[in-house]
Design brief:
Strand order of the largest sheet: 13-12-11-16-19-21-20-22
CATH topology of the largest domain: Rossmann fold
Structural class: alpha/beta
Oligomer: single chain
Largest sheet: 8 strands, mixed
Strand content: 15-25%
CATH architecture of the largest domain: 3-Layer(aba) Sandwich
Helix content: 25-40%
CATH class of the largest domain: Alpha Beta
Length: about 725
């Protein structure tokens, strides 16, 4: 099936110079109507866009033509009233046209009753009236949706390629994308984000639309992954409140602790496993041709809880025991594959006879059971699930800050990790740099070449879940408490080894008295703890011995302390291969103030700095510290670096002013709210070719400028940053 956008472009190619269009759909009671699609001055008129939309809808395969009519007339109130006219209407049955003729030609009232029940979509077309969206909705679209007696009806406004999707759901009239309904199902017109368009990919197919109609009655025990909702925006009120409810229950039963967090992560892993299981994505079933037709069908989901199970009075009730048995079955199946997150024995983490453990799991399942993780847009899912849980358990006093997705995308796109390369984040957090690298490579990166270390076990668990969602879960993520990757390094056998202060002083890390050989990486991507409040100040002899293993301690420390950003800068350099490259986010002070001048000199003597990007203070939700993004590579030969230095090589530098979001707090949880570009003439939100509102950010243009700049630089730089392998 082709996309709506692909077919829309086909229509424009065919009809951009055309004068007329012959209808391929019934127009009221007639077929083959001819429409003028150009105005007096040769411009595209409303009919052009009407048929552009319908053509795209039909020829993309989203809707059979037999289910759609144009200029459909329904009476207002009774048979003798002036009709209400829909520009187009969608029915759940191809029989609609016969019923429609029966009503209009034979005055058959039962046919009209049938039409009202089977009407599941109405469409209005306008041209250049985006300023009047609210008026069109109130006066035309909403009254048209009210004519449907179906449990669900979609309302579509298509205004000169601007798309607005609405829904009637249980007699409530709201946007189809829940993220646009600022007060959820109770949203009134002022809370429907009328200024924002819908992307074309959000248009449901006929099959999806019919599932909307009947999903109210669906038995959760008989659902597959196709029956679940996708997460489409960061403002999803229901899901936001659901996640807050999970955290409240954990707090209420005394499980907002390490054990509770482990149970949370493991239950989320079961959710992902169950969805992949439902789709028959079996990591062990690699011989697909042995599958029978029955085995190829989507399997019913096990990750659900019924009302009876939820309302059980105690753990002795058979209903809740049925739920426990189902979850344990799912756990045992998943543990064979997801052994990084799940224990072989589920009772190592979960005590099924403890009411508080079961309450937490029940709440997680209840709140998340209707949403799909694997089908959802990753940016939205990160913010609604990963970010919220990560923020809740992160520790600001340790400099742990969740990195915003737009910044992650930007850095990954610049550094350009490729299919045959190894990549590491030595302060991995929830593994966003790694997961985005994997996703952006279209799964060409080998999961087993992806590495991460963190000193927070909870973050590592969430990181494993993140990689499980986006890859195959085989990335190598390790937890080491206290100093983490400051003292622990990967060896060439993928084991963690600890630096020895007696032999590894002053950056001499590659000398070992046994056969140990440190692993070197092609790419380092990291956002380490930064800022003046994240000092490393030795408090005892052990601390002093550890920091003396870093050359920059002797060269660049400030009194008796050093910024951890400086430490991780040296760490990134030392774990890179010759020819390797890095992207690192540092406090702006490291890149600019005199205190760290010697650190900068040291770094420039070791690396070829490629680009510097100063970021505004509002990049991070948790701190107002100004930051700098540093891109650099380690030339394969020292002589190459000397030649570049002698020739005063260029550095790409730019201040990023617009990041595309602002930090908001909702129910004590910080998130990143998008800011959109406003057209200077119309004062309307601009949209891209796919119908998405355009975010007001400098990243996209900067990436283009950077790639163009690379073309004028040395061959090694071009090979690393703009060429694919």
């Amino acid at each position: 099936m082709r996309t709506f956008l692909e077919v829309k472009e086909e229509y424009d190619k065919i009809y951009k110079n055309g004068e007329s269009f012959v209808s391929f759909l019934p127009v009221h009671l007639t077929l083959g109507e001819v429409y003028k699609i150009k105005g007096k001055s040769g411009e595209n008129n409303e009919e052009y866009y009407k048929w552009q939309f319908l053509y795209s809808l039909i020829y993309s395969g989203m809707y059979p033509r037999e289910n759609i009519g144009v200029e459909v007339h329904f009476p207002k109130g009774n048979v003798n009233s002036n009709p209400i006219k829909f520009d187009a209407a969608i029915f759940d049955s191809a029989d609609w046209f016969e019923k429609y003729k029966k009503y209009h030609l034979d005055k058959d009232q039962s046919a009209l009753d049938w039409l009202r029940i089977h009407l599941i979509g109405v469409i209005e077309f306008k041209k250049d009236s985006e300023k009047d969206v609210e008026k069109v909705y109130n006066q035309q679209l909403k009254p048209a949706m009210k004519e449907s007696e179906s449990k669900f009806c979609i309302g579509i406004l298509y205004d000169t390629e601007r798309l607005y999707l609405f829904q009637k759901k249980e007699n409530k009239y709201i946007r189809l994308d829940d993220s646009y309904n600022l007060k959820g199902d109770e949203s009134q017109i002022k809370e429907l984000s009328i200024h924002l368009t819908d992307a074309y990919y959000k248009i449901p197919t006929l099959e999806q639309l019919i599932k909307h109609v009947y999903k109210v009655n669906i038995d959760r025990s008989k659902r597959t992954v196709d029956d679940l909702e996708t997460v489409t925006g960061v403002y999803s009120k229901q899901l936001t409140e659901g996640i807050s409810s999970i955290l409240r229950v954990m707090d209420k039963v005394g499980m907002k602790n390490q054990r509770g967090y482990e149970i949370l992560i493991q239950t989320l892993a079961l959710k992902i496993f169950d969805e992949k299981r439902s789709m028959n994505i079996d990591p062990k079933a690699y011989l697909e041709f042995y599958k029978t037709d029955e085995e190829s069908k989507k399997l019913n989901l096990l990750f659900y809880i019924s009302k009876d199970e939820l309302n059980a009075s105690s753990l002795n009730d058979d209903t809740i025991q049925n739920f426990i048995s189902r979850m344990r079955k799912l756990y045992n199946e998943a543990s064979e594959v997801y052994h990084y997150i799940l224990k072989r024995d589920d009772t190592e983490t979960i005590t099924w006879k403890k009411e508080e453990h079961v309450k937490v799991i029940s709440e997680i399942v209840e709140q998340l059971q209707d949403y799909s993780f694997i089908k959802s847009h990753k940016t939205d899912l990160y913010q609604l699930v990963f970010y919220k849980f990560a923020n809740e358990f992160s520790k600001a006093d340790k400099g742990q800050f969740v990195t915003p997705i737009p910044l992650i995308d930007f850095l990954v796109e610049l550094v350009n990790p490729r299919s045959n390369e190894s990549i590491i984040d030595p302060t991995v957090g929830i593994a966003d740099f790694l997961s985005v690298s994997y996703v952006n490579s279209k799964s060409k990166l080998d999961d087993k070449n992806i590495y991460g270390i963190d000193n927070d076990e909870q973050m590592i668990m969430l990181a494993q879940l993140n990689m499980l969602l986006n890859g195959d879960g085989n990335s190598i993520l390790k937890y080491k408490p206290d100093k983490g990757s400051i003292v622990w390094k990967f060896d060439d056998r993928n084991n963690l080894v600890k630096l020895n202060p007696s032999i590894h002083k002053n950056g001499n890390w590659d000398e070992w008295k046994d056969e140990t050989k440190l692993k070197k990486f092609d790419v380092v991507l990291t956002n380490p703890p930064f800022g003046e409040d994240r000092k490393y100040e030795p408090r005892n002899q052990v601390d002093k011995e550890i920091i003396e293993m870093y050359e920059l301690w002797n060269i660049a420390r400030s009194g008796n302390w050093i910024d951890l950003g400086v430490v991780f800068l040296e760490n990134a350099y030392r774990i890179l291969k010759p020819g390797g490259r890095m992207g690192i986010i540092l406090s702006n002070s490291i890149a600019s103030v005199k205190r760290w001048e010697k650190a900068r000199e040291w770094f420039m003597d070791k690396m070829r700095i490629v680009a510097l990007f100063d970021l505004p203070a509002n990049v991070f939700a948790d701190t107002g510290v100004n930051t700098t993004l540093v891109i650099a590579y380690k030339p394969k030969n020292e002589s190459d670096l000397k030649n570049l230095q002698n020739n005063d090589y260029e550095i790409f530098a730019k201040d990023i002013k617009n990041v595309g979001y602002e930090v908001r707090t909702q129910k004590r949880i910080k998130f990143f709210n998008p800011i959109y570009k406003i057209n200077a003439e119309s004062f309307e939100v601009e949209q891209d070719a796919e119908g998405n509102p355009i975010v007001d950010e400098d990243f996209t243009e900067t990436i283009y400028e950077f790639k163009k700049w690379c073309l004028g630089q040395e061959n090694e730089l071009q090979d690393l940053f703009i060429k694919e392998k």
